[in-house]
Amino acid sequence: xxxxxxxxxxxxxxxxxxxxxxxxxxxxxxxxxxxxxxxxxxxxxxxxxxxxxxxxxxxxxxxxxxxxxxxxxxxxxxxxxxxxxxxxxxxxxxxxxxxxxxxxxxxxxxxxxxxxxxxxxxxxxxxxxxxxxxxxxxxxxxxxxxxxxxxxxxxxxxxxxxxxxxxxxxxxxxxxxxxxxxxxxxxxxxxxxxxxxxxxxxxxxxxxxxx
Length: 211
Hints:
The protein is α/β, with parallel strands linked by helices and 211 residues long.
């Protein structure tokens, strides 16, 4: 299965106080770091970054498209990313720019979990579904378009429209590469404030790099 990735970079970042996409992560911007991680996890597949209209992003080794609606939410952005990658891959891993501890092994494990009959696979970590650390079939683009046309507002409305399978922590950690590199599933740790981002930076400095 040819895999790619969609990175959602166009959120308001209101609690952060500045655009999350441009935050520093060990000398790189958060969005550039996310692109590198998901490309590695997708075995070099195509990556699409979805930004807000007019949003500044650095030069990226990725396809960059704009949300059709400014700050329209992740469902709008995911749809835009799937449309942009049609014909380039069969499935994508989707994430934001605020999970900087995301390991390529996590991306690979989620993509590998897609089975025949699955339209999407969504991890459940700490009791919470993680639709922005999930795998989606490219063929879902028309389904998401219909959801948006009907007034859907968020990613959590996707399971009612297609075949979405959840992936438990135990199932994730059955992947040997992931259990070796990220046994505590810190890939799912996200930051919404400057203090949380600083804490993740400190954590990354104190732990070996994930693969």
